[in-house]
Amino acid sequence: MSAKAYFLVSALIFALVAILHLLRLVNHWSLQIGTIVFPFWGSWLGLAIGLALSIWAFRLIAVWKISH
Q1: Strand extents, DSSP E, 1-68
Q2: Nearby residues of 51 by Cβ (< 8 Å), 6 or more positions away
Q3: CB-based contacts of 30, cutoff 8 Å, min separation 6
Q4: 42, 49 Cβ separation under 8 angstroms
Q5: Cα–Cα distance between 51 and 8 in angstroms, integer?
Q6: Spatial CB neighbours of 2, under 8 Å, sequence gap ≥ 6
Q7: Model pLDDT for residues 11-65, shown as the tens digit of each residue
Q8: CA-CA distances (angstroms) from residue 8 to 22, 41, 68?
Q9: pLDDT score of 64
Q10: What is the predicted pLDDT for the residue at 68?
């Protein structure tokens, strides 16, 4: 797998994670595994981190196109 393909797959996965966290926040979906209930602030954190990593990966792809 080339570096460009790796960055693209990473960017898409992180974007998907961010979208799922956003959907959870908009639709007020609760998340419970067993007796553990996950708070909504965790989705805010997941949205921010997923979005940041996705943007970072897409920017690396753009830089890759310029330099190669």
Answers
A1: 31-33, 36-38
A2: 14, 15, 18
A3: 37
A4: no
A5: 14
A6: none
A7: 999 999 999 999 999 999 999 999 999 999 999 999 999 999 999 999 999 987 7
A8: 21, 28, 16
A9: 78
A10: 66
